[in-house]
Design brief:
The complex is a heterodimer of chains A (216) and B (686). Chain A is mainly alpha-helical. Chain A has helices at residues 2-18, 33-76, 80-88, 91-104, 110-129, 148-165, 174-184, 201-215. Among the domains of chain A are: 36-77; 156-215, no CATH class. Chain B contains 5 helices and 55 strands. In chain B, the strands form 14 sheets. In chain B, strands 2-3-4-5 form a 4-stranded antiparallel β-sheet, with no helix packed on it. A 4-stranded antiparallel β-sheet of chain B has the order 6-7-8-9, with no helix packed on it. A 4-stranded antiparallel β-sheet of chain B has the order 10-11-12-13, with no helix packed on it. Classes of the chains: A mainly alpha (216), B mainly beta (686). Chain A: This is NOL7 protein.
């Protein structure tokens, strides 16, 4: 940037000298060396200051951004007080506490909900590490076990699935495959999976509940 | 005869896993089969293709190759990277050695069964020696880049052919070096895909046969490195190859489910020059055929549609009778459903969970063949998930419906169920005694006071169930002679005095529960037992064998009954003996002591001992004709076998009370829609 500013500086005095040219036939003005030197210096100073201000502005922006990230990160974890309390309490109570915290306290938009989930996971991981048995829909694994062997196996399985079920293999849905016979029979029958049972699940549930309420 | 209200159950969502590998043992006529979920099964062809051993699967176990070596020892290797030996007497894995090359894609045993070679993911080929007690690493052969997908020994054990992606290699066993390297993809123009060599066979005549992902079967002269013949059998991949012992017939399995036979035939009648010709196409499967075997007289194929198909070659079969028929096996030859009669509950066994259902009820009656409306729908009461990666081996529910027991290879679980109105609560019974595991079969006593566990070495454990929630090990019943085989079938008498157990050596032992001593042994018969039951009133043991014979043994008198002798003298009807599937469950009607109810996959039969037996000239399936005859004519034509083929394929049938039957069916199309995707078949006009 310093080089650019210097180049700009060099070009500017030349431009400044050319601009008042009213006609192309006149010879350029006679400018003494001292004047020219001063002009160049002031130009350079101005440009340097502009560059410095520009740099300061960028630094400020960056600083503000970092602070914003730090603030967001801090917001994601539970408040310090709650964490300390939970560390101190026995694991079972900790679970209930965590549940209470997650349902009640944190407010906000989607970010807060995500943070709740993350906090709950953090909480439960803590509890698990303490060695107490707690019920939950998760599996705690050691990262040491999920090592290179698992990666090799996954690569092997991927190879198999791309070559047997990949894009070139001309596979088709079971419904299409088995319904072909029904369509080609002399007596045409419906497709094998004619009714897709996953249509309108909520509506069916609502209807069943409505019927229950009215019949009860 | 009787009118029954039939609960027709079709909500058992069983999806058997696809067949991945097959290994044929010609000496004992046994076929080992491995499925995609890690289950290993052994079929005994001499015992009418009975599935005599099942080793349950494991989440972490994937079997990519299976072979017999060292006599009657079975070895498997998979993507887990280890070579496992299966103990067929104890039905579990006996030892496991890590291959050291990452996931293992293929394994082959040499002609004499003394060495194993494995092909690994990292491109290395390793030799192992089969020693008593396990296997030992011998050495590494030449390693190149590219995973080794298939291997084959030369019949003289001097060379090994290895197929990889785009490349076929031949290695010399003594030096370990690659002596020939053939590019398999060279002959396909303008194609960007790589050519995967799925299967390879080394013939004695220095020809190598390969099958690849372009659907070609190619014959190579390995010493010159040239292609001799190329046959395109299919547009999709040709996945598996097998050659006959005389090396004149090859069977190929493809991705579309079709299998083809190629035969070495003389060019002209009587000429010496022979050529390979594609002779017979078969379409027995709907999904990929990943394993084929060529036995002396039959082509055996296993597909990802979970079917095992045995097709006899007509020119090889001596007697053209029922032995030459096409056999298809989809369902296991064991019971996966148990029924609590009084509580009207059904327990379904899946590989990793159990489901308890209560049957629906109706209060209407109707005529023969009518469908009655349900007043209460069947309810799914409990779903019990098994913890851990092991698959469930056996399960049972007590007749009163308050106890559920199941076992995996290393753990045994007992649960207590309580019903309060419409709610069910389940509690695990703590402090179950540490018995010799696994349990191969579980059976509750008729009054739900004790549980019988079939265990290794022919022994049966008796567990007493205590209220409210406990159990105590009462006794272990052992057979008089030592046997390494495990018990796989149990039968308990209704009065709680007798228990019968069958082990892998096919000997039926009967124990008295009053004195906990061995009572007697049923005379040995040269076939496997497929179902066993003790009559509630007469204490006769009814036995169904794999060759469709039926015997009745009187336990108090320790000899066969008069009716059984009559059946053996007259012989059973020819159509009865020519059934494809085995009888898996026998039960009785307490109100009618002369009735025996049995079923196999395609029929349900009520055997009336008081009626005469049909001879070969009489019609066996005469129910429909009898319905149309008047009463007097009917009496003349009645015979003992009353067979109903309306409910198929049947997984379980039982009598709930004197007028009520339950039939659990699993339509094959319901299974096929839940399998992995099949390959599209383009048909003209669609």
């Amino acid at each position: 940037r310093r080089r650019k500013a210097a180049a700009a500086g060099k070009r500017r005095p030349a431009a400044a000298l050319l601009s008042p040219a009213s006609s192309e036939d006149e010879a350029p003005e006679e400018v003494s060396f001292g004047v020219a030197r001063e002009a160049a210096e002031t130009e350079r100073k101005l440009v340097g200051e502009a560059a410095r201000r520009h740099r300061e502005l960028l630094k400020e922006k960056r600083r503000r951004r970092q602070e914003l990230f730090a603030e967001q990160k801090r917001r994601k974890l539970l408040p310090e007080t709650v964490l300390q309390e939970l560390d101190a309490m026995p694991p079972k109570r900790a679970e209930e506490q965590a549940a209470a915290v997650n349902t009640g306290e944190l407010c906000g938009g989607g970010a807060a909900k995500q943070s709740e989930g993350k906090a709950q996971r953090l909480m439960k991981k803590d509890v698990q590490r303490k060695g107490a048995r707690s019920k939950g829909n998760y599996v705690a694994v050691r990262l040491k076990d999920q090592s290179l062997a698992g990666l090799h196996q996954q690569l092997a399985r991927d190879f198999l699935s791309t070559h047997l079920y990949g894009p070139d293999t001309n596979r088709v849905q079971a419904n299409e495959f088995f319904s072909l016979e029904n369509k080609k029979n002399p007596v045409r029958k419906a497709a094998v999976q004619f009714v897709d049972k996953s249509w309108g699940q909520e509506k069916k549930l609502k209807a069943a509940r409505f019927k229950q309420r009215w019949l009860a | 005869m009787g009118e029954f209200e039939v609960h027709r159950v079709r909500f058992f969502g069983l999806v058997p896993a696809g067949v991945r590998c097959l290994a044929w043992q010609p000496r004992s006529a046994r076929l080992a089969l491995a499925r995609t979920d890690g289950t290993v099964e052994v079929y005994n062809f001499a015992a009418n293709y009975f599935q005599e051993k099942v080793i349950p699967g494991h989440d972490a176990r994937s079997v990519e190759a299976l072979c017999w070596a060292g006599g009657d020892r079975l070895f498997g290797a998979g993507l887990g990277g280890a070579i496992t030996e299966y103990d067929l007497a104890r039905l579990s894995t006996s030892c496991s050695v890590d291959g050291g090359g990452g996931p293992i894609w293929s394994m082959a045993a040499n002609g004499s069964g003394t060495r194993l070679v494995i092909g690994c993911e990292d491109g290395s080929i390793k030799l192992f020696q089969v020693v008593p007690g396990g296997i030992q690493f011998e050495r590494n052969l030449d390693r190149r880049k590219g995973r080794i997908l298939c291997l084959s020994w030369h019949p003289s054990d001097t060379h090994i052919a290895a197929g990889s992606v785009d490349i076929l290699r031949v290695l010399d066993v003594c030096s370990g070096q690659t002596v020939q390297r053939i590019m398999v993809n060279y002959h396909v123009q303008k194609v960007q895909r790589e050519c995967v060599v799925w299967s390879v066979i080394f013939l004695a005549s220095s020809t190598i046969v390969t099958s690849d992902s372009f659907g070609r079967v190619q014959f190579w002269d390995w010493q010159r490195g040239t292609l001799v013949e190329s046959h395109t059998v299919s547009t999709s991949s040709a996945l598996s190859l097998a050659v006959s012992e005389k090396e004149d017939s090859i069977v190929v399995g493809t991705s579309t489910g079709a299998t083809y036979q190629l035969q070495l035939l003389p060019v002209r009648v009587g000429s010496l020059e022979k050529r390979w010709v594609r002779t017979k196409p078969f379409q027995h499967h709907t999904h990929d055929v990943r394993a084929v075997v060529h036995s002396g007289t039959a082509l055996i194929s296993g597909g990802l549609d979970a079917q095992l198909v045995i097709r006899s070659l007509m020119e090889k079969v001596q007697k053209k009778g029922y032995e030459a028929a096409l056999r298809k096996f989809t369902f296991p030859h064991r019971r996966l459903v148990s029924c609590a009669r009084k509580a009207r509950l059904l327990l379904f066994q899946f590989t990793q969970h159990l489901e308890l259902w209560r049957l629906g009820s109706t209060d209407k009656t109707g005529k023969d063949g009518e469908v009655l409306p349900l007043r209460r729908m069947p309810e799914h009461l409990v779903q019990l998930k098994s913890k851990g990666p092991e698959h469930i081996y056996c399960s049972c529910v007590s007749p009163c419906g308050s106890w559920i027991a199941y076992s995996t290879t290393s753990r045994f679980h007992l649960y207590r169920l309580r019903y309060k109105g419409d709610n069910v609560s389940i509690a695990k019974v703590p402090k179950v005694p540490k018995l010799l595991l696994p349990a191969y079969q579980l059976q509750f006593a008729a009054d739900s006071s004790s549980l019988f566990i079939a265990s290794a070495q022919g022994s049966v454990h008796v567990l007493q169930l205590l209220e409210p929630e406990g159990c105590k090990h009462l006794h272990t019943l052992r057979p008089p002679s030592e046997t390494p085989e495990a018990v796989y079938l149990l039968a308990v008498s209704a009065d709680g005095h007798w228990v019968a157990a069958v082990g892998g050596d096919w000997a039926i032992h009967i124990y008295s529960l009053k004195s906990f001593k061995h009572h007697c042994t049923v005379p040995t018969y040269s076939c496997a037992v497929t179902a066993l039951a003790i009559h509630p009133v007469t204490n006769n043991l009814v036995i169904a064998y794999a060759d469709q014979q039926l015997f009745e043994f009187s336990i108090p008198e320790q000899q066969y009954t008069a009716w059984s002798r009559m059946v053996q003298n007259c012989g059973l009807h020819r159509l009865w003996l020519e059934r494809d599937t085995h009888i898996t469950h026998i039960t009785f009607n307490p109100k009618n002591p002369s009735h025996i109810l049995l079923h196999d996959v395609y029929m349900f039969c009520v055997l009336d001992k008081s009626l005469p037996l049909p001879d070969n000239s009489a019609l066996l399936l005469n129910q429909s004709t009898l319905k149309q005859l008047p009463e007097t004519a009917r009496q003349r034509q009645l015979h003992a076998f009353k067979i109903c083929k309306k409910f198929q394929p049947l997984l379980f049938a039982d009598l709930l009370d004197e007028n009520c039957l339950v039939m659990v069916e699993r339509p094959i199309m319901d299974i096929k829609t839940e399998l992995p995707l099949p390959v599209q078949q383009k048909k003209f006009g669609t």
